[in-house]
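During the no-cost extension, the postdoctoral fellow (Dr. R.K.) reprocessed legacy sequence entries with the updated structure-token encoder. One reprocessed record is reproduced below for audit purposes.
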Amino acid sequence: MGLLSRFKHPKMADHQEAKTLFLQALKDRLVAMQYHVVMDKHHIIIESQLTIVVEMIDDSQTYLNALHLCMRLKNHYLPGDIEEHIIGWGNTIQKQVNTALDYFISVVFLPIQGAFSESHQSDLDFIAMIDERKILFHPKLGKLFLSGEWPVSPATDHFFNLINTSIRTQLIDRKFNWLKICFTHAGQGIVQVQCDLNNQAWPAGQQILQHYVQQLPKPQVVTAASQMIIFRLCDAYEQLI
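Re-encoded structure tokens follow.
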């Protein structure tokens, strides 16, 4: 969502009010999903293992009818944290909070929180060779968020399949690796691609996505997609370290 088009914005709701509204809405949503949640004015702790820190970004001169949040997800298995910038759209602060919350829960939070569980899709598992050792990884695919013009919607595992072979040589021998994919294809022919592995730009992944996007039909306005993929090191392997 951070790559979506920018527009001028004449005013913005008070940051502290918006932050409080978002944190409370996030807590309420997570509690309704049966998670144990503790909240203070700046962050939320989920199941005593994942901390979500929320900061407001002042884009009052940049985005029209939008709320810009910087979300940091913290855990000792996530060195450097996972940082995600999210835009909530709407003509009221409540609508902005709701759209940002819907995106965060479905695209960002669920695959990260889900990676802490032992469940996985065995058909997505693969072996990677790291430092001359074979390591089994369990990929956890987040929701594929699509917006704009898609004549045919790609499957949830489409972008995972595109990068599956190349990423195996890039993963680090640790509990979690994470990949953020995001791109927009504007009608003017402008293509923007983001492919970050463990908070760092991954050039080979960017090239794969760039090639894919350039093969798409030129949209009248925009075609966009984003997805989070978590790679969990197999518990059985971790026990042998």
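Helices lie at 15-32, 93-115, 158-167, 203-214, 235-238. Confidence is low (pLDDT under 50) at residues 1-13. The remaining legacy entries will be reprocessed before the final report is submitted.
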